[in-house]
Task: inverse folding
């Protein structure tokens, strides 16, 4: 079952800079061969359900291994049976609608 | 790895009443023997990582089987290594703090 | 415009125990006269859009005032025009469906 | 109080294609002069608290005006007092960490 996920991993108890921990998660996604898109509040991930959720679990295990005592992940995950749709399709379908509307009056 | 999760399952393309689909998910949690707490915007779930996420996957498979063409689940999942904490502990720790503060001035 | 919200306030940089900060938020909801329901991963809040979001803003201001350097709030907010529905209605509509299904086979 | 937000607007009861409604929201952000970044599961928005949340409210009002009977928005909103950080800073801080790590072994 193919999914598109949006994942925000929040490590607690290790200060205010989270980027080292987010970078560690991206290594996990890359090693798993998952397609990702980093944005300012998380990462879009595309792939099969089991592979994507295995990567999320590995993020928690890895970050705990790095000494993070408490982790909260915020996840949005979508599945659909009506059609195949990848990350780029979702973005371009909105951009096409905006282009049809023309410049903002 | 023990988790506390908050899960909101949103079925699209099947009208405005989602309660039949949420009830179907609760049957899955019950069959899996998971501890749950239904609230107005989702369900808290407590259990082992693999069992809890297997139940979420089964919700998507079951709802698609009920004819739902598109599903988005919004998940918050927490793990911690500093101490054991169940759902009731989390609620009572806030209620105790409120009790200490006494009536609102 | 009436809303039902689910709010999780996450303070960073102040250790692992968040309950004092959640209790401070609940004082704000109570002072604003908002209807709330505390659960294991956040708080359901019911009220008018402006009053509920003013309370969220006050949570951020208050917690920064308590010395929290970084805060992330995770919010689900729902509005509908097809019918009036309060927090209890949402919960009972699922519980009624579960009752109709009878004991799990 | 400056915020960085991640917003996902989900319209219910109007079929499976949400892009026309997301495009309508982007017109609102543009008219408000807000800085945005569209991704596959929502939109990052940067600006002052009141302006950003006023735009979210206008999204709900506009979509209801377009005939959407039920809307759920999923929001992550962050504020910090320790330093100024914009959307690009958050992304580049992770990308720099990844660059330091070098290619994945």
Result:
């Amino acid at each position: 079952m193919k999914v598109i996920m949006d994942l925000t991993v929040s490590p607690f108890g290790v200060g205010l800079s989270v980027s080292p921990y987010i970078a560690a998660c991206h290594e996990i996604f890359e090693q798993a061969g998952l397609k990702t898109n980093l944005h300012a509040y998380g990462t879009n991930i595309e792939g099969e359900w089991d592979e994507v959720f295995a990567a999320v679990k590995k993020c928690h295990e890895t970050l705990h291994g790095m000494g993070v005592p408490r982790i909260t992940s915020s996840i949005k995950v979508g599945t659909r049976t009506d059609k195949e749709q990848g990350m780029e399709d979702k973005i371009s379908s909105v951009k096409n609608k905006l282009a049809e509307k023309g410049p903002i009056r």
Notes: Chain C touches chain D at residues 1, 13, 49, 53, 57, 60-61, 64, 69-82 (CB under 8 Å). The mean pLDDT of chain C is 94. The longest strand of chain C covers residues 2-12. Residues 2-101 of chain C form a domain with the Alpha-Beta Plaits fold (CATH 3.30.70.930).
